[in-house]
Amino acid sequence: MIFITAKFRVRPADAERWPEIVGAFTEATRAEEGCLWFDWSRSLDDPTEYVLVEAFRDPEAGGQHVGSQHFKDARMTLPPHLVETPRIVNFDVPGVDWSELGELSVDQS
């Protein structure tokens, strides 16, 4: 799978509305056949920073995402709400799901 994490520093005036601003883009991406997940979180330390964790089934699915109309639209509509270019980590990793964090194993009994 293609595993991507990106940090978005949002303009303070838009920080509370960011989930609404990216709502249509998020919904359309999650509906893509090759999207495994597309999840936003907000930093506990910086209320203007949002972190996107996303994964796509394979490089082809990632390419389809980047070629989609909603991605092209986001390239035009999101930057005015940002204070800097988002930072990204992108890896091709084996599997198609999360692994367990064994060091914090929870006893289910």
UniProtKB/TrEMBL annotation:
| Entry keyword annotation includes Kinase | no
Q: Does the keyword Amino-acid biosynthesis apply?
A: no
Q: Which organism is it from?
A: Nocardioides immobilis
Q: What is this protein called?
A: Antibiotic biosynthesis monooxygenase
In terms of InterPro entries, this protein maps to:
ABM_dom (IPR007138), AI-2_Isomerase_LsrG (IPR050744), Dimeric_a/b-barrel (IPR011008)
Q: Tell me which domain of life the UniProt entry assigns to the organism this sequence originates from.
A: Bacteria
Ordered alphabetically, the record's keywords are: Monooxygenase, Oxidoreductase
Pfam family of this protein, just one? ABM
- Give the GO molecular function terms: monooxygenase activity
